[in-house]
Q: What sequence folds into this?
């Protein structure tokens, strides 16, 4: 045997051994415990009732959905192995076979139908039901094939099913009320429910029979800790392993700590300042152009040119944000990559204001919530300062969140501009542009028939290329209208103990099956 | 005596009735929960439908009567946010709140009464000054600041105690100190001044003159007579402890009624706020009713007034 031959044999043997070693972790039984500190507890464990990140972070581990999103937010097969659009209003899903619920029931087309019908049951008043209002019926084709029929083309069906529509064990839940579903979750997911002491701790245990392979971490404990400083203290003391929503000013403490690290991802949430172009009444009917100087497009464009979000990111947010050119993030379908953020330009501000008949500047109000978003009030004050320096003398008014929504934003009284954050987890432009800028919606204060037409067309167009074109045009139109001053996309910051391998996701989700422990314990 | 207690009982019921009116009306004025509970992209039609189904469209008086009818049966409706019976959510968290308030009160009494007595008996000595300064500090420190400082020192720096959560006795230490310190300070001050007043009375001089030893004078003659204001303040302080638990529970992630109420207020979750306030107010009223009974033993004259 030649030297080379020996080498190859050796390499092959080593490869075989390595192969064994390498596959070993996947076969190993789950081990150890990870404690996750969120700011609040889930309000419920009924996976169809809620619309909130803290509950998703628990329930995405107990329940599987038909589709899912990978770490790059691409839609991937999950309980559905494959799917296709049969007609523009008929979606067909082929289910994974051999999947069992935690109580032993088998996953089949009937279970999917049961779950989708339960979700849409008007008597239950599920918060997710509105996302499926176009669904007309759910039909079982055969044991592992199910069709969802919609009343109109529904281009964001996949986006919805990659988050919502958790598949629930039909026999377990049949005839039971919501209170039962709240406390007795049974799904097909990688983790099984163990116990929940509300506002104290919630315990999950690995489902070793999970169709995706046994998870690596045996136990996940969720603890709600409302105070940022205390969440960080618990992290420092080793009481928790992952803490969500670390404010930028506490980042250095974690960075310097020998046992901790920061994991971050650009958030799904963007912050921006819609500017009223039109006035609507409380029934969302158009009254006419808005009262005051912002009815002039040049004034709105001047506002946009007067702001400098980059400076705000650097100072107020300590660099923990990314500037956005529109209210969409770059990961949202429909985002136009060729759009660049508007540059601050004091000369242009002056010129636009003079043209609009305000050579001596104007006085405006900027409304903002206080305490809803990270440093919201400080950001609003900084924007106000920048505008004032450019000749748009801005008074900042801040409000408690619920008051802000109920008595200002929702009834078209936050004139002439207001700060808001928007976390569109459908990851499709429709979920941001329609509610905020298409006339007739409670949050929209912008009226442009061309824009409205584009929104309506995109909503019932299933061809992704065509939709992309429409949204690209719509964003340019909306920005040219001066309907919004885009600010930034916040960074989601997590403090993590070095014993845990964790990567922050832009979806704000913590997926138990993707966690592992360095020392296996 | 019976007439006295019956009168106090009727007063207590009247107070609870007043609480129910106030709680109902204040919450009604703060905003529309329909908008907060539905997803932000809900259509106007969804909102109208939801309002109708929750009965938010009925006249205020009708809503109040519906509320009261349920309240007397312990039914405060379903939590708007949790979708479960509101009373059950509150009752579930009561043990944690009582545990914390009880620990805070026990801590306060065990420190404050001896400290107050010693300060009074050893008036204007070093021990009196120290106790006065500590009591003033205890009253001046904001709860949230004290809580965070205790966590930074005892959990983060020294690693002796857990920073948050409920569990063993060690979980109780920091929140109980945080919650109880203000009450400790108040009771100390009150015990001291009460004892000072009593110790200057003629009957104390008489007792001493007839040769009664100092310990019986302090414990039997003075303390019992000084105890009426102390018992009163304990009853009132229980309200402070239950109410103060809102901040303490939030800082220490303690799973009690206070934290639930704060979340419910932010979410305009009327039924939960109403159930929580009603239950805490009832506890407070019951305790003060018991305090009134205790009075009659401490001072028999009260029974005949």
A:
């Amino acid at each position: 045997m030649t030297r080379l031959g020996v080498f190859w044999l050796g390499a092959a043997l080593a490869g075989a051994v390595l192969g064994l070693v390498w596959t070993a972790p996947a076969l190993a039984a789950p081990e150890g415990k990870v404690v996750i500190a969120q700011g609040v507890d889930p309000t419920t464990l009924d996976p169809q009732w809620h619309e909130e990140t803290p509950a998703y972070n628990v329930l995405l581990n107990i329940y599987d959905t038909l589709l899912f999103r990978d770490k790059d937010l691409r839609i991937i097969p999950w309980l559905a192995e494959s799917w296709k659009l049969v007609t523009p209003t008929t979606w067909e899903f082929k289910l994974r076979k051999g999947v069992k619920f935690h109580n032993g029931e088998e996953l089949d087309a009937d279970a999917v139908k049961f779950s989708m019908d339960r979700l849409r049951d008007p008597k239950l008043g599920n918060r997710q039901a509105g996302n499926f209002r176009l669904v007309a019926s759910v039909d079982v084709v055969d044991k592992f094939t199910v069709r969802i029929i919609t009343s109109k083309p529904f281009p964001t069906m996949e986006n919805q099913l990659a988050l919502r529509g958790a598949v629930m064990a039909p026999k377990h839940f049949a005839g039971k009320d919501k209170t039962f579903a709240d406390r007795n979750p049974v799904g097909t997911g990688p983790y099984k429910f163990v116990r929940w002491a509300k506002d104290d701790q919630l315990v999950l245990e690995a489902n070793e029979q999970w169709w995706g392979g046994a998870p690596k971490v045996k136990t996940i404990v969720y603890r709600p800790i409302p105070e940022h400083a205390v969440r960080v203290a618990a992290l420092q003391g080793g009481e928790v392993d992952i803490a969500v929503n670390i404010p930028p000013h506490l980042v250095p403490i974690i960075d310097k700590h020998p046992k901790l690290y920061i994991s971050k991802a650009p958030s799904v949430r963007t912050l921006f300042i819609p500017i009223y172009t039109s006035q609507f009444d409380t029934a969302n009917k158009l009254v006419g152009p808005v009262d005051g100087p912002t009815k002039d497009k040049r004034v709105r464009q001047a506002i946009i040119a007067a702001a400098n979000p980059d400076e705000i990111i650097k100072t107020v947010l300590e660099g923990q944000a990314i500037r956005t050119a529109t209210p969409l993030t770059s990961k949202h379908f429909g985002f136009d990559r060729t759009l660049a953020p508007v540059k601050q330009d004091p000369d242009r501000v002056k010129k636009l204001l003079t043209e609009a008949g305000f050579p001596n500047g104007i006085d405006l109000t900027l409304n903002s919530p206080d305490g809803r978003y990270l440093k919201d009030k400080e950001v609003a004050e900084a924007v106000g300062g920048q505008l004032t320096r450019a000749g748009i003398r801005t008074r900042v008014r801040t409000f408690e969140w619920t008051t802000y929504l109920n008595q200002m934003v929702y009834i078209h009284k936050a004139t002439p501009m207001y700060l808001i954050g928007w976390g569109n987890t459908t990851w499709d432009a429709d979920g941001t542009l329609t509610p905020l800028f298409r006339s007739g919606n409670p949050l929209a204060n912008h009226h442009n028939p061309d824009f409205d037409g584009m929104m309506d067309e995109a909503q019932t167009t299933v061809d992704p290329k065509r939709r992309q074109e429409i949204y690209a045009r719509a964003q340019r139109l909306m920005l040219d209208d001066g309907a919004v001053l885009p600010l930034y996309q916040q960074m989601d910051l997590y403090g993590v103990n070095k014993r845990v391998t964790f990567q922050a996701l832009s979806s704000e989700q913590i997926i138990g099956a993707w966690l592992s422990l360095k020392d296996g314990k | 005596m019976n007439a006295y207690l019956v009168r106090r009982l009727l007063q207590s019921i009247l107070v609870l009735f007043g609480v129910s009116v106030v709680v109902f009306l204040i919450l009604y004025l703060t905003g529309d929960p329909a908008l907060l509970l539905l997803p932000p992209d809900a259509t106007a039609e969804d909102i109208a439908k939801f309002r109708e189904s929750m009965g938010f469209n009925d006249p205020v008086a009708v809503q109040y009567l519906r509320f009261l009818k349920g309240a007397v049966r312990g039914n405060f409706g379903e939590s708007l946010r949790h979708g479960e019976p509101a009373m059950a959510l509150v009752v579930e968290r009561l043990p944690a709140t009582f545990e914390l308030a009880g620990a805070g009160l026990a801590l306060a009494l065990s420190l404050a009464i001896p400290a107050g007595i010693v300060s009074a008996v050893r008036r204007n000595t070093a021990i009196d000054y120290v106790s006065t300064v500590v009591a003033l500090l205890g009253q001046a420190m904001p709860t949230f600041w004290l809580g965070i400082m205790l966590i930074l020192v005892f959990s983060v720096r020294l690693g002796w105690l857990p920073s948050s959560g409920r569990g063993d006795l060690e979980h109780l230490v920091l929140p109980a100190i945080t919650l109880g310190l203000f009450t400790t300070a108040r009771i100390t001050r009150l015990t001291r001044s009460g004892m000072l007043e009593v110790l200057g009375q003629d009957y104390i001089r008489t007792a001493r003159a007839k040769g009664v030893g100092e310990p019986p004078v302090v414990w039997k003659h003075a303390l019992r007579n000084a105890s009426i204001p102390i018992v009163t303040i304990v009853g009132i302080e229980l309200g402070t402890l239950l109410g103060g638990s809102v901040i303490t529970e939030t800082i220490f992630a303690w799973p009690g009624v206070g934290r639930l109420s704060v979340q419910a207020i932010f979410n305009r979750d009327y039924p939960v706020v109403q159930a929580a306030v009603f239950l805490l107010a009832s506890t407070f009223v019951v305790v003060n009713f018991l305090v009134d009974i205790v009075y009659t033993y401490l001072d028999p004259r009260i029974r005949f007034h």
Notes: Chain A touches chain B through 46 residues (CB under 8 Å). The mean pLDDT of chain A is 90. The radius of gyration of chain A is 26 Å.
